[in-house]
Write a structure and sequence with these properties.
Blueprint (H helix, E strand, L loop, with lengths): L1 E7 L7 E7 L8 E3 L8 E3 L7 E3 L1 H6 L10 H10 L3 H41 L14 H16 L9 H10 L7 H15 L7 H19 L3 H20 L2 H12 L6 H13 L1
Helix pairs in contact: 3-4, 3-6, 3-7, 3-8, 3-10, 4-6, 6-7, 7-8, 8-9, 8-10, 9-10
Length: 279
């Protein structure tokens, strides 16, 4: 019959000897492990309470080879604390909504600046308020804004003139939604010069493109898929429309029906809601 017995050496801190031997034999091979008082903790088997074994954590403390030498076990435990895919999408959509709100502030300030310089100061400079023949000088003010758009149009052909929202939708749905960051500044400057100088233009298309470009930039930084990129662009558009018109529901449904073309999931719709509300 095979049995196990524990014997200790006389010196303190010496290893415990686990001695397997057959009944009736006087000599048997001896195997040493660390003592119970060592820095590592030991666990006993429920089936064999007298047999003491050492865990992977204790091996690392005692200088032995750990169970996960490359740290994969620790990474797996850390991933449990990280947000899931949908939660991460909601957090990023919230960030896009906040950025869209800040872009709207810059956009409005730019329009007000151009309006003050061209319309207010230009009106006073030309003394149009005195009436008479000076009223004929009033068309000069919007012409100044149109003239300032010419260098910008030559520097960035196709980005300033015309209705650019159709090209924006084509880029989103057919070209994976990759939009350059410079489009944000081009749209802000061009729209501010147009509206601020008194020319005929609206803010719906430009602000949707500005918010969508912000969403695209965030998606590019996180290197998301084309499907997820569309959600982030739609979140930016929703935030832009909601913020400029103070209409969260309008921004949400605009992005869902126009940008996503009515094809979206519940999680995607939640991202639009969050972005619209925070913008």
């Amino acid at each position: 019959m095979l049995a196990f017995s524990l014997g200790c050496r006389e010196s303190p801190g010496s290893p415990i000897n686990i001695v397997p031997h057959l009944a009736g034999e006087e000599h048997a091979p001896r195997f040493d492990i660390l003592p119970l008082g060592s820095p590592g903790l030991f666990q006993s088997s429920p089936a064999h309470p007298h047999l003491v074994v050492q865990t992977g954590r204790d091996q690392a403390r005692s200088g032995r080879q750990p169970r996960y030498p490359d740290g994969t076990g620790m990474l797996k435990r850390a991933k449990v604390l990280l947000p899931g895919d949908r939660a991460r999408m909601i957090l990023i959509a919230a960030f896009i909504g906040v950025m869209s709100g800040l872009a709207i502030i810059v956009f409005r300030e730019a329009v007000e600046l151009v309006h003050k310089v061209v319309r207010v100061w230009g009106y006073e400079f030309l003394e149009i308020g005195k009436g008479g023949w000076r009223n004929l000088l009033l068309p000069i003010l919007p012409m100044v804004g149109a003239t300032l758009l010419i260098p910008l149009s030559l520097a960035f052909p196709g980005k300033v003139n015309g209705y650019g929202f159709t090209n924006f939708l084509r880029r989103v749905n057919l070209e994976n939604g990759v939009i350059r960051a410079r489009n944000i500044f081009i749209k802000i400057i061009a729209t501010a010069l147009t509206i601020g100088s008194g020319n005929s233009a609206g803010v719906e298309g430009p602000i949707a493109q500005i918010g969508g470009a912000l969403g695209s930039q965030v998606g590019q930084r996180f290197r998301v898929s084309g499907k997820r990129m569309k959600v982030y662009i739609a979140a930016g558009c929703a935030g832009g429309i909601a913020g400029i018109f103070n209409a969260p529901l309008a921004g949400m449904f605009f992005a869902a029906e126009i940008v996503l073309l009515g094809t979206y999931e519940i999680s995607s719709f939640s991202a639009l809601v969050i972005a619209s509300a925070l913008s």
